[in-house]
Design a protein that fits this description.
The protein is mainly α and 118 residues long. The protein contains three helices and two strands, in the order αββαα. It folds into two domains: 32 residues, no CATH class; 75 residues.
Length: 118
């Protein structure tokens, strides 16, 4: 094993450059398998387009179910709780934000899939 003190200055520089390049290579390889810091599930390409379609349908259904639930709570609790309308509106706004983020993530997956499917 080499000791750092035994290396000349040029050897130290070369060693530093090699370590930096190796670290960047590792980061690049890890980055290839993540989207926005989240690992990409390695799904065979023949399933990906169908899974994207199912994801869109599930997000649409979940959004509708959440809005229905907010409305049901608002209608049933309105007489007992006057503060309910603002909470229902806040819940609906949160649902809209989550919907937009989810669909945006799906669109990114579709853009990655598009060049591969050609």
């Amino acid at each position: 094993m080499w000791r750092l003190e035994d290396l000349t200055v040029p050897q130290r520089i070369v060693a530093t450059v090699v370590i930096v390049i190796a670290a960047l290579l590792v980061l690049f390889v890890v980055g290839m398998f993540t989207v926005e810091g989240q690992p990409i599930a390695l799904v065979p390409p023949r399933f990906e387009s169908h899974l994207i379609k199912l994801d869109r349908e599930a997000i649409d259904e979940a959004y509708k179910a959440h809005i229905r639930r907010l409305f049901d709570i608002w209608v049933t609790d309105y007489a007992a709780n006057i503060g309910q309308p603002p909470r229902a509106v806040k819940g609906a706004n949160n649902a809209r934000g989550a919907y937009v983020q989810s669909i945006t993530a799906i669109e990114k997956r579709e853009s990655v899939l598009a060049p591969e499917s050609k």
